[in-house]
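Continuing the series of single-chain predictions for the mutant panel. This is the parent chain; the variants come on the following pages.
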Amino acid sequence: VDNLLGDPTKAKEKLGWETKISFEEMVREMMENDLSLAKRDSLIKEHGFRAHDYNE
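Parent structure:
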């Protein structure tokens, strides 16, 4: 994702929604997941199998 943009105001006002993690924690979780997927795909390719390229 090149750009994430959102305003949680409506969810807070109408649903009483509150964040559970900080922005920094969210970014860390997303990066950890991306790295995990990259490692998995690298291992798959290393053993001669095809991995899906999600950016195509």
